[in-house]
Amino acid sequence: MQSRPKSAPARGRPRGSKSFHVNVAQAFGSIVREGRIAQNISQEDMAHMAQMERSYFGRIERGQSQPTLFVILKIASALGVDPGVLVGVVGEALDKPE
After folding, report:
1. How sure is the predictor about 69, in pLDDT bands with cuts at 50, 70 and 90?
2. What's residue 19's pLDDT?
3. Would you call 69 exposed, middle or buried from its count of C-beta atoms within 10 A (0-12, 13-18, 19+)?
4. Positive or negative: CA dihedral 58, 59, 60, 63
5. Distance, CA of 41 to CA of 15 (rounded, Å)
6. Domain 22-95, what fold?
7. Pair 78, 39: CB distance under 8 Å
8. pLDDT at residue 15 above 90?
């Protein structure tokens, strides 16, 4: 009996997935940008501190990318804040009426 070769899992979101939430991504990016600017850190230096590409970090700050938990942990560490506090601030920003 022949078995089919196992393929590697697909990367990224499955087709038709609706897991990207613009308002969450924009709120997170805005909070991160405010924290970075408050500490007078350039975007390039911040990306280096978080061990990620500057272009990806820029997309996160602009709300064009929604980071994974691992990336959130790296950003929080680079900012010198507790990840729970960072996520909490984002949650508070989302709860505020516009």
Report:
1. very high
2. 74
3. exposed
4. positive
5. 37
6. 434 Repressor (Amino-terminal Domain) (1.10.260)
7. no
8. no
